[in-house]
Amino acid sequence: MTATENAPAAAHSAAGESVIKLEYHQRLTNSDLAPLRKQSWTWYNIFAFWMSDIHSVGGYVFAGSLFALGIAAWQVLVALIIGIVAVNILCNLVAKPSQLAGVPYPVTTRVSFGVMGANIPAILRGLIAVAWYGIQTYLASVAFGLLALKFWPSLAKYDVVDDYGFLGLSVLGWGGFILMWILQAIVFWNGMETIRKFIDFCGPAVYVVMVILAGYLIAKAGWSNVSLDLSVGPGKVGWDSVTATIGAIALVVSYFSGPMLNFGDFSRYGKTFGEVKKGNFWGLPINFLFFSLLVVCTVSAAVTVIGKDEDGAIITDPVHIVDRIDNTTAAVLGVLTFAIATIGINIVANFVSPAFDFSNVAPTKITWRTGGMIAAVGSVLITPWNLFNNPDAIHYTLDTLGAVIGPLFGILLADFYLIKKQKIVVDDLFSMEPGSTYAYRKGWNPVAVIATAVGLIPPLCVVIWGTAYAASFTWFIGAGVAGAVYWTGMKYAPKSFIYDTGAEPVIGDGAADGSAERTLF
């Protein structure tokens, strides 16, 4: 069918200009979810995306924690290399379907879950993003609280929760949180083009300040006081060091599991898949390794320059490091930089994604902007500061998130690469006609639903009854089990169980391997 017969219409939205055909079903389509009219992001935009994703307070603390695992520095570096290369490969795999079709992650999942069943991964991923969004907003808001106290020490009494607090957060804390909440909402509300410009600037800008901060602390401490080993007490040896290294690899992959799953929300904007892969290479292995080394040098030098915290532990939070520097200008610049960096990761990883996810649930009622604001409001209701300040709660929350994300990832890859052989019929992503490629049974693929449920059970059991070490592998367990169950079901289950018509739809010859059938004009 030609574009003229379909009379496609260009639709403008905050998420980009898309093309909507008359045949697209209203329940599945809006201008935010439809295929992009033009994909214009270069490798640098993808590179900047990963810089913004990594250069946050959470990323800083995470990188520092890896060097404090009690294993040799070379083992940490091996774990970092293996882990981040694995992330790079997985991101390339999940990026391809969205880049080919020009659609966001939740629309891509219609290929495996069905046009209606895709709401399962969309809602699950959206809720996960809400939790992370709240935590990251809280972490960044702490910076503003410290900055306020530096200039107005008299505000200290308003930082006491017992005297001036509400729902577990002080008045000063609420002020910082609301300020961060508003700043992020303003950037998001202006649309993807503004977000692209924001992350293009933030990634390099944060690096400049980080290098200056590291140089300042190293100069003050002296190279002799800089070490790649941040561990306290006797280190791990023998088999314990091997298992700790393997655990570190798993932690690296799990840390990136959220943005890795919904990377299609950004790869859809890539000019070509080659541009996306190039951006991933510079943004992940190269960027993350340099970032990690810069972090550990900064943290190590900071021990000599500013000392340890009240409990005698090494300070890995960059906001607290710069706050203790005996230089007001440097402290202010550092605090603002890391606050901006955290805004960057929060928008790209936890604002854009739920915007698409929630819009997918009810396209006619929920726009991309509305979906994002639903996530923003939800992030306040969960009171993330209480979550983050409770070690048991944060442990169970983060491990559970990994357990949920894993199965969704495993099903997506098993379907696109092993079952569908990298073929997508883009127009059928927006069709509810019986017999269309992704109609399955009334829009639901029962195999995907079953695989998700089965894939969730083992990792959740590990979270509840397993050790903290075993919980590091929940993402891998969920992805492996769900992917295997899905592949088995799609291969051997009766077609009458999977499809209303009792037969598998045939994808036309026009879609070659690694391509998508779509005629926009």
Task: Please provide a written account of the structure.
- The protein contains 23 helices and 6 strands.
- It is mostly helical and 521 residues long.
- It has a single domain, classed as Hydantoin permease.
- A two-stranded antiparallel ribbon has the order 1-2.
- Strand 1 and strand 2 form a beta hairpin.
- Helix 7 packs antiparallel against helix 16, helix 7 crosses helix 17 and helix 16 crosses helix 17.
- The N terminus is likely disordered.
- Belongs to the purine-cytosine permease (2.A.39) family.
- Its main location: membrane.
- It comes from Gordonia amarae NBRC 15530.
- It is a multi-pass membrane protein.
- GO terms for molecular function: nucleobase transmembrane transporter activity.
List the helices and strands and how they pair.
Layout (H helix, E strand, L loop, with lengths): L2 H4 L2 E3 L6 E3 L22 H12 L2 H10 L6 H29 L3 H4 L1 H4 L5 H33 L13 E2 L2 E2 H19 L2 H30 L17 H17 L1 H5 L2 H4 L5 H34 L11 H7 L3 H23 L1 H10 L6 H14 L2 H5 L2 H29 L3 E3 L20 H20 L2 H4 L2 H19 L2 H4 L16 E3 L4
Helix pairs in contact: 2-9, 2-13, 2-15, 4-10, 4-13, 7-8, 7-15, 7-16, 7-17, 7-19, 8-15, 8-17, 9-13, 9-15, 14-15, 16-17, 19-20, 19-22, 20-22
GO molecular function: nucleobase transmembrane transporter activity
Main location: membrane
Family: Belongs to the purine-cytosine permease (2.A.39) family.
Give me a quick take on this structure.
This protein has helices at 3-6, 43-54, 57-66, 73-101, 105-108, 110-113, 119-151, 171-189, 192-221, 239-255, 257-261, 264-267, 273-306, 318-324, 328-350, 352-361, 368-381, 384-388, 391-419, 446-465, 468-471, 474-492, 495-498, and strands at 9-11, 18-20, 165-166, 169-170, 423-425, 515-517. The chain is mainly α and 521 residues long. The protein is globular, with a radius of gyration of 23 Å.
